[in-house]
User: What shape does this take?
Amino acid sequence: MITGDCPGTIVADFETLIDFVASGVRSTGKYHLLPMARLNELDERMTTPLRPKLQRPQQRSFPHLNGLYLLLRATQIGVPGGQGKTSGKLILDPFMCEQWAQFNPTEKYCNLLEAWLRVSSWQSIGGHGSGWASGPTMLARDVWNDIPKEGRHFSKKQQGDKGILNSEQRAATLALLELFGFMTVERVEPSEGRGWTIAKIDHTRFGDEVLTMIVVGYEALYFSQKQSDLDFGAWQEALQPIFPQWVNNLKFPEPEFRDGIYYFKVSLGKPWRRIAIAADCSLDELAQCIISAFDFDGDHLYTFRIPQADGTTLSVEHSYVRDADLHTDEIAVGYLDLEIGQSMPFVYDFGANWVFTVKLEQVKPPDPEISLPIIVESHGKAPAEYDDEW
Assistant: This one.
């Protein structure tokens, strides 16, 4: 039976984070992290506050908050709103919150488990590595395997070293292992200038049973093959015998088409072009217009890297890229989930690596006179695509 504080405090502490964001929270930097000025306040609301003794603690100084934030973005219950230093903020998505509110504790626990080990990406907190092989799942396996079955004690000298907490991602992983009840972590009060200080780590039988299924042996193959499913519940069939009250799952909203004429400012260093394009035009048509606007010959592959609501980046590739998840001729401009003022990189020629900044300036009402992308304004001479030697 799952409760708010058993087998771990993940559900209770995650809902504390939701309540915190609901009260109104500014975000910092391009990853929309939690505001430094309020981290100690949020930490005190946790079931077991960390209370690091640091002069200017950042989000990564609170591994449990960092892990919870990772889940907040992976579930898309918390999403960014606004851009930059003045308008950047974290907000709650009403569609996702309404689903969450209907769940029983088991459904909340299991959806958070999938959010962590199947859906999340370190990109959400500014890290690297995603997917089954290099993402949170395998790091959870590694940290779990680093602790012997009889547990591990840390001497006072070892407590003074970073040790198992030698990276932001490993620290967040251990914190989540504790929050989910997969491990118990005995801590000591940190000394001045120190953060999370660990005296002992132990396995739990519950954690060993669940993690053995997910990351060890034959069963793990089933879980790894379920990485491509977009919505939650991919692991429900395998885990429901353990969690019989797991019935409902989070479902992401369907993409919405926003009609109109999109105006993009496309920059390549100082030179820039303003392009107008109808919502029903494809990203491939936008790519061709960008290439033409800068007098490139268009003989190379390209990709758009589109920021997503969960803090990750979606790569939409040239149609000749065979292993792409999505091609530029398969998505219309009107399905881009970009706010006014938000940018996406356009990378042309993977060898030369020309990186254009494509900034959405405005969306005007539909105009029957604009059916194909057009160059509205042009400033600066474009660089030569090839040097003289070429």
Summary: The longest helix spans residues 105-119. The domain at 261-379 is CATH 3.10.290.30 (Structural Genomics Hypothetical 15.5 Kd Protein In mrcA-pckA Intergenic Region; Chain A).
